[in-house]
Structure formats: C-alpha cells, structure tokens
Predict the 3D structure of the following.
Amino acid sequence: MEGRPAPHPMTWPDEAVADGSATTPGHPSRSALFTAVRADPTGPVTAGLLQLAHADAPHVRRAALDLLHSLAGTRAVDTALTRLDDPDAGVRHRAARLVGRYGPPDRVLAALAAVPDPVVRTLLAASLGPAVARLGDDRLASVRFVARLHLLRTAPPARWRALDAALMADAGEAALHLEDAGRLWGRALHRLAREQHAYDIAARLLANPGTRRMGAELAREACHIWRAAPVALLPLLVRHQSRETETAPDLDKAVATALLSETARRTHRSLLTGVPPSVPPPAAVAAPAPLTAASAALLLAARPVGIIRLRRAGDIFGTLLDAGPLSFRQAAQLYNLTFHRPGRAQAECAPLWLRHAGPAALPRLLALMTPHVADYAIGTYYLAGLARMGRAARPALPAVTALIDRRTRIPVNDSTRDGETRLDERLLAAALGTFRAILADTR
C-alpha cells in the first residue's frame, strides 16, 4: 500500500468532520462543505478531506471516507486503497465501497487479491459486475457466492440446478461476510421468473439454523416481488419465528412484510394468534360538513369556470346532480375538472360527467380512466370512479382484471420496500372492490 501523509492541524472543515456536523443532513456545515467542494473539486477542502482519511481518530476517518464517497469519487480511490487494511473495520468497509464504486476493475481485482479481510474482499467482488464471474473458484465462500449469483442471473435453465447447489453449499459461510445475501439471491431468481424455486430455496435456507437469516431475507424479498409469496411463506416464517429462543430481527421483518398481504392474513388467520399486527389501524378522519345544493352552488360560484382542481369535487357535483340538472356554468366547470388533467379530480368527476352527459360520453371517459388504474399514486381514485359507474364500466373490466391477475407487484417508487408493498396491496384491494362493484350492479 502507498505511504500515508502525516496528520495536519485541525481547521475548518476539519472540525465539522470531527464533530459530526459535516455528516448530519441539513446542517449548515455540511451544506457549506458540499458547496465548497463542488465549486472547486480539486481545491483545499477536497485536499483536507483526503488528509482526514488518515486521521488518528477512527470516527474521523469513517466520516471523511463517507464524504469522499459522495464528493470526490475517482479522486479518492488512491486514498481509499491505503485504508483497506485500516485497524478499524468501519473504515475498511467504507474504503472498499469507495474503491469498488469508483476504482477501475484492474485495481479492484488487485486489491481483492492483496487484502485478507473477508468482508472487504466480498465488497470488492460485489462491485465488479460481470468481471466477478471469473472468481467462482475463489478461496472465500462469499466471493464464490457473489460470482455464482452473477452467473445465475443469465444462466440457461439447464445450469440452474448446478448453480443452485453451489450457492446452497456456500450459503452458510457466505452469510457471515455478505450483507443482504438472501435479498440478492431473491433478485436473481426474480430476473429468471423462478417464483416457485424462490419459495423452495427459502424453505431450505430457513430449515438450517446457519442459513436461517439468509432464508428470511430471501423470503422477505420474495414477498416484496410476488403477490402470492406471503400466502406461500407466512406459515413457514411464523413456525420458525415461534421456535426462536433469541431475538431474530430478520425473521421478524420477514413476518411483518408477509403480514402486509390481506390475502395472507385472511388465509392464515388461525396461525396468527399472538402475532402482532403489522398493518396499523386506519387513522380516524373527521367527516366533512354535509353539503346542500345551495351550499354546493355557492362553492362553485366562487370558483372560476376554468377550474382544474377542486377539493370535494365529487361531493359538490354529486349533491347538485341529485338536486337536478347543472347550470351551464356548473357543467363547464365539471367538464374542465373531468377532461383537463389526470388526477384525483378527474377520477372523481368522470362518473359525474357520465351522469350529466349520458351514455354517449362513456367511451371517452373510459379511455381517460383505464390507463391510470395501475398507477400507484392515483390508481385507487380511478378504480373508485369506475366502481361508481357500476355496470356502465364493464368495458373497463379487462384493465381491472389485468391489475388483479398480476403475479408480481406493480412498479412503485417509495421510500421503503414495505411502503411499496403496501401501495401495491392497497391498489389490489381497490381493484378487487371495483371488480365486484361492476359485476354486482344489475341496474
């Protein structure tokens, strides 16, 4: 490894790194440091951070490497390489992530061959992408595991059994040094559409105490990917959870994720005695003030004709339509709310426009609504609108049933995987309710 510079006297931003303010989101010191580095990427602030990677205090070295990872990128690779044998494990692991993210493959491979720390070697191997495939015979099980996972991702079916067996043989040791091994395995199986195989492998991993944590990770990933996974895996997860004599956070998380599925909770109700619910009860919402035709008309009179957003639009126009036909101005407002912008107002107003304009408007309304039923942000509003249309919405049933029949969860962008699963479950419940409402309407 290269020589290490001598420590230098502490000045700003050194103090900000040492006291933690530089790594505290939203802190003025952090903002100032980021602004300074972005203004002069090779300037004195960056040089100071590179020096701090060699500070005496491990927490300062860790903070410096975190900041260098975010701010310096390739300029910090040489410094990070010198910290791969740091006495502090947190420093070593941060250095490995930086080298793996920004270092060229030849230098990553050279470092992987030189360092003894199994976690560092595993982190470096995981960063190699396709080049990791050549490490299938490495001396370290976790490196072999990463290499074979990469091979599995693109393997033809004829090679699946052999690769599964090799992964299973290394799973116990690999779990000691590879974070999220079960999640990574689950993603590889998803790529190959091997749903049932994922359940079978999770069951085998859960049965062995040495691989149970990995099995819980894989089971949880499966529940995040496939809608049927909670039903298939919840009994197994609950059984192993009940047998644990010590805290098992990964099992607890997997059970909590599986319990997000309403179908799993209903199917396995008898198994869940004593299992705390993972879905909080809905918060109480104050009922809005009741509307009359007169109060609804006053609310609309205060709004422009070109309105495209309106709180309680469904209640307002529904009240007016219950009382009689809309005025020309009110009809223009409803038209604008219905046809000008996708979103909650459109979804709520479309059934009301159908009431106002009659069956001739139906094809245009369904063409507006059906493309949005699988949208995780606004799909529930459109499904509710179709449900209110009743049998008139039967032409939309193929879109609704396509959403219900998905084996995988809808693509969602939320802050957590459990949050994404909740959104999919909410949309699925809305689609089932809409399907029943349309078929039940015999008017």
Residues 80 and 95 are 5 Å apart (CA to CA). The radius of gyration is 29 Å. The chain has 24 helices and no strands. Residues 6-10 have pLDDT under 50 and may be disordered.
